[in-house]
Amino acid sequence: MNIRKINWGRLKPIYLSFSVIVVNTLILLGLLLVVLKFWSPPIPRADFTRQFDLSSYQRVDQTTALEAILENQKIQDEKAFEFFPWAVYVTRPFKGVYVNVGKDHSRLTVLPPPLKTGQKDFVIWTFGGSTMFGWAMPDSQTLASHLQTALNNRLFSYRVRVINYGQPFYHSTMELAFYQYLLRREEKPNVVFFLDGLNDSNNLIKGGDIPWLTDIATVGFEQERLRKYGTDANVPWFTLNESFPLLRLRTWIQQKFKMGTSSGVVKYPKRRGMSVAKALDKYNKNFQICQSIGDAMNIRTYHFLQPVPWFNGPSPRPNKQKNVWFYEGLIDKSRKGFYPIWNALQGVPSAYVDARH
After folding, report:
1. pTM > 0.90: yes or no
2. 3-state SS assignment for residue 330
3. Among 229-238, 260-269, 301-310, which stretch is predicted with the lowest mean pLDDT?
4. What fold, for 48-209+272-340?
């Protein structure tokens, strides 16, 4: 049997040429990544300031208002939230000039006055969505800050401290979970306020009980589960995140030319809405649980139905019919601890800073 000898001399030029091509390609790719790292085009973002009516900021100047709006835009753009096992997410600690969130995930309020001789502390917890959080408002202009100032000017036997646990995009189911978590962790308050309506009417009808950002939480859980417990066959051996320069360039191209984004491999629960009747039932059950907790723990509990521009307000919208029915269903309920203040802003000029708040 004749075995033909390999002529290594003839393969040497091919090998050298291939090596040069590979090395040069890697060098060019490295240079491209460096360029994209420092000079990649920014992802186009909407001008957040155009959504707001600056004339509605009657207690601060427009420069302060714009700065507060931009700090809230930073929270929105960076999705400055962190995983929270009891309600999927909470706002991360955030330090700005006008917008600040503490380590306990509460929005900063104005400092209470010093405790005077003979006074007792009177603590109020507030819960709600972005309206209670004070979206696009400075710390000093949130509902919680105004409430604290007003009560300290009236209740002279107490030093009132209001702790603002409002969270963007929260609805009553999430607030209840956050409330129960805090009761197990902190000293109970004297009073608790819940301000709801906008997010409940939107989320329960359109997305059910599944909170916003559940998709991110689910994908993160699944990826970590595969990394720690998956078999060699289903664990990716090489992954890239969205900060990789080429992926940033891809995202920019997709958004710039409205090409859409590629869907992830990991699936997460689809947000499914419910009928207005079921949405009302969900809210009413959350209300009853909160009231029962208050009765059992001697915490005065108040629920408020917040004003919104599309319900007998300046901006009626035909696509909000189900939301209107939701509000009408709650207004018809006369019960202890529930206060429908949906009409509190009627007749007030420029009462809303945007189409929601």
Report:
1. no
2. helix
3. 260-269
4. Rossmann fold (3.40.50)
